Amino acid sequence: MAAPLNVLMVGTGEYTTGFVGGGASGSDKKVGVVGLTLFDLRRRGKVGKLGMVGVNGKKFPQIREHLHKNITQVYNNLDTSFDSFPDNDTVDPDAYKAAIDQLKPGDAITIFTPDPTHFPIALYAIERGLHVLITKPAGRATPADLDAKGLPTLENTIATTAILEAGRRSIDEGREIRIVVEDGVWKLV
Length: 189
Description:
Elements (H helix, E strand, L loop, with lengths): L4 E6 L8 E2 L2 E2 L9 H10 L3 E7 L6 H13 L10 E3 L9 H7 L6 E4 L6 H9 L4 E4 L8 H7 L1 H8 L3 E3 L2 H6 L6 E4 L2 E4 L1
Parallel strand pairs: 1-4, 1-6, 4-5, 6-7, 7-8
Antiparallel strand pairs: 2-3, 9-10
Organism: Trichoderma longibrachiatum ATCC 18648
Pfam family, one: GFO_IDH_MocA
GO molecular function: nucleotide binding; oxidoreductase activity
């Protein structure tokens, strides 16, 4: 059996950590969705090393405290540790590059960032052979826009998988979706 893939969470806000504006979100995502899910998948041995990257590393001490209080202490000591980029004293809008460069082909990233950042982050990861899960449309681009920029061509050439958050429509329509990994490829089912 292959080693579990490592996953980098790109974006440290509401969907990933539930941490916004210096504290827990007031929404139904007060502990995040992405981080909680990946911490549990790591506990089950489905994923390996976890990382998180944002623009402002100065938020990581508060994010760690938030995750410890709202996940570790609530969910049976669930391990919420992760490698963080940039370091705790740095603000760097390109920190995702250094974080992605720590991964190996076949690992994965999730992108939960502002829409205009989706495409450059996804492209950087796909060029390095990583699997990519993007929230919402890739920067609100149409398939023709993405094709013109070369994303589908790169995806097929490098044999990685980019999944858009098709689940939003499915959930709105009352349908359930699952993401599964078959032979190292992420698929929506």
